[in-house]
């Protein structure tokens, strides 16, 4: 009886142990099931904005300005100052053509100018003489008028007036003598002509006559019979004044003619110097010499370039656009230019877009690269890059976050630790981002970026961070 009781107790113990083991196994299985249901996911935020399309067009690099330098005259090169690869500034002398004939022409015109200057100086002297003659003639007229007045007013008054006339005549004679002596010295030095000396001598003689007349009138002041003589003297004096004034006008005309001749000579000198300067072949722009077509001793012409200068600071990128690409670009627009061989990107400004397609059906675009530190060279391959907004502003999510199953399109939003399947409508899709719209969606939502393909609506999720590479 006791033995059977022991067996029953043993059996009961085994049963209890098995039950406990089973319960523990069930609890373990339940715990493991809960862990599996928390799907690991990576998340991000919904953004708002416009999708952009990145346009890339293969282009070629050209120099902004290329200048063929043409000689301005035909002749033999006597000096060449440059070679290919040299850097030059605008205005630098690249070469010189034989200019002996042009130099001789300048010297001849300068000699002519000196002659014209001498004629002008002589005309000035003639005018000075004419002015002195006019002054002396006016004094003579004044003296004759005074003598006339003296004769009419009587002896006493006549004596006083004649004395004054004598004094004036003496002053006139002194001036005429001084002018004659000066002209004599200039004549002896070859500075004035004989005609000018004779004019001075004539003025001196007139002054002597005027003085003699004044003295004669003074001695005859008491005679009332002198009135007729004084009248004749006055008429002669007036004639002399008229002649002197005519000579002064002629002298002024002589100055004007000499001045015109001098200006004409100056013009011819400048023209001769311009022709002399034409013997220099000048750089019309700053840049690098890429071609030199001539050496010392060779003959150059005005129809063939002597050298070619390329401005490497002004770089243009030329691209061929299709009709579809044309709408993404406009003049004065800032774009990016990639140079694959340099692995660098530069800023450029669109300077030209053709309105007419070429024979290949493309539209030409040109863009000027602003700053490149001399790195970009003509002939390099480039890529014109421009991002263009597509469509209106919308909610944007990574394209991979959108799940498409059959006719359904949706994303998973994380809410209270669970994945909420949310239907969406695709407005526009690009490689990286997709524009969507959906009920209840906003920038505040957290969206599943990775792990969404294994989720179902309502699944619990465990957010993990993206591993750093």
UniProtKB/TrEMBL annotation:
Organism encoding this protein: Niallia endozanthoxylica
Family: Belongs to the membrane fusion protein (MFP) (TC 8.A.1) family.
InterPro entries per UniProt: MdtA-like_BSH, RND_pump_MFP, YknX-like_C
Keyword Cytoplasm among record annotations: no
Domain YknX-like C-terminal permuted SH3-like stretches: 395-462
Cited NCBIfam families: RND_mfp
Name the record gives this protein: Efflux RND transporter periplasmic adaptor subunit
Residues spanning the signal sequence: 1-25
Domain Multidrug resistance protein MdtA-like barrel-sandwich hybrid: 66-311
Coiled-coil residues: 197-275
GO MF term (any one): efflux transmembrane transporter activity
Keyword Signal assigned: yes
GO cellular component assignments: efflux pump complex
UniProt KW keywords: Coiled coil, Signal
């Amino acid at each position: 009886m006791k033995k059977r009781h022991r067996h029953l107790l043993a059996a009961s113990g085994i049963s209890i142990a098995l039950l406990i083991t089973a319960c523990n196994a069930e609890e373990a299985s339940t715990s493991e099931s809960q862990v599996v249901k928390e799907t690991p996911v990576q998340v991000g935020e919904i953004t708002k904005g416009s999708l952009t399309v990145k346009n890339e067009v293969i282009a070629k690099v050209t120099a902004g300005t290329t200048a063929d330098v043409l000689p301005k005259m035909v002749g033999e090169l006597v000096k060449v100052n440059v070679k290919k690869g040299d850097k030059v500034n605008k205005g630098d002398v690249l070469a010189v053509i034989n200019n002996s004939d042009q130099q001789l022409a300048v010297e001849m015109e300068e000699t002519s100018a000196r002659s014209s200057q001498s004629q002008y100086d002589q005309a000035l002297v003639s005018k000075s003489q004419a002015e002195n003659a006019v002054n002396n003639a006016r004094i003579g007229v004044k003296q004759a008028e005074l003598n006339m007045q003296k004769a009419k007013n009587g002896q006493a008054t006549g004596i006083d007036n004649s004395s004054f006339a004598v004094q004036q005549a003496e002053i006139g004679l002194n001036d005429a003598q001084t002018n004659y002596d000066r002209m004599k010295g200039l004549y002896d030095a070859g500075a004035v002509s004989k005609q000018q000396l004779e004019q001075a001598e004539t003025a001196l003689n007139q002054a002597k006559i005027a003085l003699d007349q004044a003295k004669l009138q003074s001695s005859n002041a008491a005679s009332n019979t002198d009135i007729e003589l004084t009248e004749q003297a006055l008429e002669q004096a007036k004639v002399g004044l008229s002649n002197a004034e005519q000579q002064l006008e002629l002298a002024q005309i002589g100055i004007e003619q000499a001045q015109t001749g001098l200006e004409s000579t100056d013009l011819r000198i400048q023209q001769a110097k311009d022709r002399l300067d034409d013997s220099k072949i000048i750089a019309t722009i700053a840049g690098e010499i890429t071609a030199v077509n001539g050496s010392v001793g060779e003959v150059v012409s005005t129809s063939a370039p002597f050298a070619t200068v390329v401005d490497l600071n002004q770089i243009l990128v030329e691209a061929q656009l299709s009709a579809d690409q044309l709408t993404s670009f406009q003049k004065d627009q800032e774009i990016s230019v990639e140079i694959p061989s340099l692995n660098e990107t530069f800023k450029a400004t669109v300077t030209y877009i053709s309105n007419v397609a070429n024979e290949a059906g493309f539209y030409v675009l040109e863009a000027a690269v602003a700053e490149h530190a001399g790195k970009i060279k003509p002939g390099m391959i480039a890529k014109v890059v421009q991002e263009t907004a597509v469509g209106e502003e919308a909610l944007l999510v990574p394209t991979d976050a959108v799940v498409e199953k059959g006719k359904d399109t949706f994303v998973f939003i994380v809410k209270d630790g669970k994945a909420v399947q949310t239907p969406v409508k695709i407005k526009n899709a690009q490689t990286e981002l997709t524009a969507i719209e959906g009920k209840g969606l906003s920038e505040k939502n957290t969206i599943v970026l990775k792990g969404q393909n294994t989720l179902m609506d309502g699944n619990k999720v465990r957010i993990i961070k993206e591993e750093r590479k």
